[in-house]
Amino acid sequence: MLRVFVRAALRPRLMEPCRLLGPVTQIPERSIVHQDGLPKLPIPPLKQTFERYLAALEPLICDDEEMEHTREHVEEFLKGGVGERLQKSLERRARKTDNWLSEWWMQSAFLDCRMPVPVYTSPGVVLPRMHFQDRQGQMRFAAKLIAGVLEFKELIDTGTLPIEYLSGKPLCMDQYNQILSSCRIPGPKRDTVVNHAMGTTTPTHITVVHNFQFFVLDVYNSDGTPLTVDQLHMQLEKIWNSSLQTNKEPIGILTSQHRNTWGKAYNNLIKDKTNKESVRSIQKSIFTVCLDAPMPRVSDELYQSRVAAQMLHGGGARWNSGNRWFDKTIQFIVGEDGTCGLVYEHAPAEGPPIVYLIDYVVNYIQRTEMVRSPMVPLPMPLKLRFNITPEVKRDIESAKQNMNIMVHDLDVKVLMFSHYGKNVPKQHKLSPDAYVQMALQLAYFRMYNVCCSTYESASLRMFLYGRTDAIRATTVDSFNFVQAMEDPAKQNTEKVALLQKAVQKHKDLTYEAIHGQAIDRHLLGLRMLSIEELTSMPTIFMDCAYAVAQHFNLNTSQVGAKTDCVMCFGPMVPDGYGVCYNPMEEHINIAITAFNSCEETHAAKFSRAVEDALLDMRALLEDTAKTQQ
Ligand code: COA
Ligand code: HC5
After folding, report:
1. Which domains, ranges and CATH numbers included, belong to the chain?
2. Could you tell me the pTM of the whole model?
3. What is the chain's mean pLDDT, rounded?
């Protein structure tokens, strides 16, 4: 039975000025007000957070004196009254708002963040390679994809998406209202996100980009029905045929700039009325489809890594980086050689709703045949005009240069680990997610002989408007396990026992995180309030240990999909790795990124270390199980 939810955005959101939601005019009657039943994000007890913070630091800070200093700072914070005062303020904020964190999180994690969105914040998704090999196939596929997304949109609009669950608890569905018809807008200091899905006139067009040229494609007939696959196909053909020139200015590449730079360039760009209207049309559109030019062919082994890079940045100014509007929340990318996937601007939503949409659309594509429908002549899709003034031209040149630097700097390796999947850890009664995390810990330790601060995303969607908190995967127990694996004097039974303990610890941390009891967002809240309410920053946020704890060399996330796709994102720090994995029942897709400008990191080497770690861990479990029989 499908349960329905009410568009959460219909209720007034306190403290959410950063989301410029359009005026709400239609309030659909819904039978079950799912969102209203969701609990509010709690504020963990102060003492608990700091006990857990000190425990998290233990494997990371080897210097006893430094650890002692931090203990003193924590003690002073807890006993000197400052902690209590901030905690009380936080509790007041929680009482007054639907979610005490969401505005702060939106600002600090996304809108205040000045790095370019491609590579630094926007994740990519690579779909399995499709069977088409030419332009016809590309058009047919793109037409089905568009129709599939429109069918999914209908579920969002009517509030009939099935409610998702985690650990038996219903999840907040609000993010689905944010992923279509929305767009990030650059500002010289802070960005905003506009969402046109709730306005008086909701958008009825998508943006299609081909050879750097942008088109408005109306995807609904005048009676409100969506265009059929056949009709969409015809319209895409028209777009293709009227954008054959390949010498156009890649205006979209402006959106890949550092946000301050883009903020200034944006104001300059939209001074011109035609440019302003064209930009508004892209921002208002439901989503974007990028029909990409063919990329250089690579071996089958490198194919997935090449496509992951194409999703993250487009391949550079010469290739498809200008065939994007990186501020757009969802951009589907379809190439001629069977390449397809997407890049999405992260501010409005987490990966799981995007992946749920993909699973739906892939299923739609598989079950849909193109049926010839009676052809009502449709108008030619409108090509968006841009007046390229010398200043805009200068901004485009600078964006091209910076994009090329970014492309050269990103090191991507996709590991399609085919030896086993969730099945093996499950057979050994271990949580697959915790098990993969321990493999990452082992790989890192083998490469660097130390452990590092590790971030794993945990969903907070059990709570109204919840986004994420962090599971700090490096623990005393994970450290004991990886050290034992490298110690020839240790018996296998002991190694297995340490693995089980480390996995259990990870499971406990996961449980705490998804139930709103992790430490990172609480610390963020206390720090934000310190800025707002105190004259000086408490020493807990100023010491070396805090800096080490925040420097996530391993930036990881599990995003499970039904579709055999690869999810990817860039590292969080200059000397770190981004690791996104999709554990399937019998194999695991893992995308690893690093920066070439860092001599210490190497995505392919780390990938080999992860593969070895996963193989060694299975061998350890199986050998030990055999000897115990
Ligand atoms: N023995 C046997 N099976 C076990 C087990 C055990 N000890 N522990 C877990 N399992 C099973 C589970 O029942 C589950 O089964 P399923 O495959 O049939 O669903 C499966 O193994 C997976 O469980 P596990 O690996 O423990 O974790 P999880 O899938 O619950 O994921 C998180 C953990 C942290 C990833 C998840 O809680 C979460 O927060 N996901 C969202 C992350 C996110 O938002 N990422 C994107 C950010 S943009
Ligand atoms: C399509 C997969 C997207 C995964 C994106 C993701 O995991 O983003 C994390 C979100 C968060 O708040 O934890 C951030 N991270 C990339 C830094 C892990």
Report:
1. 41-96+418-627 (3.30.559.10), 114-409 (3.30.559.70)
2. 0.94
3. 93
